[in-house]
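Researcher: I'd like a candidate sequence for this fold, 108 residues long. If you have to choose between options at a position, lean toward the conservative one.
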């Protein structure tokens, strides 16, 4: 099913655009937060807490987080951080899947 077909079945197709925009903005913000933390780590300055980074991931920034982990190689060796990142990514997939299910299949 293409995005246009999906949007035509949703009661309010603007919801899909809002969700997409949210994930884009949160991804960019999360990537910048990881980059800022990496910069602070190199300069021995005040760091962003892991808890804060995970909250950003959970709020929709998981794509930006994974790009930062892979490209910037930030937090890429810390297994406990990576495990929680996988869990937050899974929570996002479940949440978005549930939202799409409710919007598409319950509105038909």
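Model: Candidate sequence:
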């Amino acid at each position: 099913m293409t995005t246009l077909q999906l949007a035509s079945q949703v009661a309010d197709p603007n919801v899909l655009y809002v969700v997409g925009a949210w994930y884009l903005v949160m991804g960019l913000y999360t990537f910048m937060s990881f980059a800022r933390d990496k910069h602070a780590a190199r300069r021995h300055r005040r760091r962003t807490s892991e808890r804060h980074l995970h909250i950003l991931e959970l709020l929709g920034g998981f794509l930006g987080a994974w790009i930062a982990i892979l490209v910037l190689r930030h937090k890429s060796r810390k297994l406990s951080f990576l495990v929680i990142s996988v869990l937050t990514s899974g929570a996002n997939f479940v949440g978005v899947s549930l939202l799409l299910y409710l919007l598409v299949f319950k509105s038909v």
